[in-house]
Design brief:
12 helices
Length: 306
């Protein structure tokens, strides 16, 4: 199954963000530390490149991610031109207090009342943009919810006489190229439930966790996981947690939601769904598949001419 989700209001959000980009100095891009590249919107990268704006990449929810993997991601992003990366939790005031200072290092010419620092928060739905906005202002000005796409309009607020901030709605992009990205986003609740089948997402997540964090699954659910695949893990969770339908059959949807919610809440422990290395392997495989497809099309065209 290929997961796609692009609500209508996001087209308008992209247009307004492009207009605002002209008037800001630094883009604060919030991503999910557990899947930093899968949760990076390529449209934001394009808008930044067009306007040549530096980016503070915030790997939010770092308290839920594997710290060793997060450290590799920070080094990976910091090696990119115009990007400075930091891992934090937007729910921790001490972490949030660093943000404006980090932005100033990216735009040192903007540091007084005559030239106040102008920042814009961007990112996909449900990665914590509104939580960051509220923490920076130390009051609730942006709606926060556990459902993606809670914020639907752009707003600009002065943080101080020397700094202002534009908060933007969460933006997806029209087509998710890589199926694994769609599943990781759905597992992390960045995509609305109306666009996904929970059981399929849980099967994907279970398979990934079995590969990388089997010990955490054993600790959480109390049964051995050797030899299991994603669907079998979901079934085993259903049996252990008593997820039964009328008639005694397993309620796989309920079991799926248990696994998904445990991951989302951090009940499994600190896990990361992708690493710089797995990302590179996935992109290489994608490039090779495209090359093979192009070669097959070329061969087919040549055969048709003969």
């Amino acid at each position: 199954m290929s997961i796609q989700w692009f609500p209508g209001h996001m087209t308008s959000a992209r247009k307004k963000a492009a207009e605002s980009m002209e008037r800001i100095d630094v883009v604060i891009e919030v991503v999910d530390a557990r899947l930093p590249e899968a949760s990076t919107n390529p449209m934001i990268r394009e808008l930044r490149a067009h306007r040549q704006r530096p980016c503070l990449k915030i790997l939010n929810k770092a308290d839920l991610a594997d710290p060793a993997v997060t450290a590799r991601w920070i080094a990976w992003y910091n090696a990119q031109k115009g990007v400075s990366a930091v891992a934090l939790s937007c729910k921790k005031p001490g972490d949030v207090a660093k943000v404006v200072g980090l932005c100033r290092t990216l735009a040192p010419h903007r540091n007084d009342r005559l030239k106040p620092l102008r920042m814009m928060i961007m990112g996909i739905p449900n990665v914590g943009k509104s939580t960051l906005m509220n923490a920076l202002l130390k009051k609730r000005v942006a709606k926060v919810g556990d459902e993606p796409a809670v914020t639907k309009s752009q707003q600009a607020i002065d943080l101080s006489p020397t700094a202002s901030l534009v908060d933007t709605p969460g933006m997806m992009w029209p087509k998710i190229l890589h199926d694994s990205d769609g599943f990781m986003l759905a597992a992390s609740h960045a995509i609305g439930r109306n666009a996904v089948i929970d059981e399929e997402v849980a099967n994907f997540l279970g398979g990934l966790l079995l590969q990388r964090y089997p010990a955490l699954l054993v600790k959480r659910y109390g049964f051995p996981v050797d030899g299991l695949d994603g669907p079998a893990l979901v079934e085993a969770i259903g049996r252990r947690r008593g997820c039964l339908q009328k008639g005694g059959g397993l309620d796989l949807e309920k079991a799926s939601l248990i696994l998904l919610q445990d991951y989302r809440d951090g009940a499994l422990g600190r896990v990361s769904l992708e690493t710089p290395e797995t990302r590179a392997v996935m992109l290489q495989a994608y490039a090779e598949a495209l090359a093979q497809k192009a070669q097959a099309a070329e061969d087919s065209a040549e055969n048709a001419l003969e």
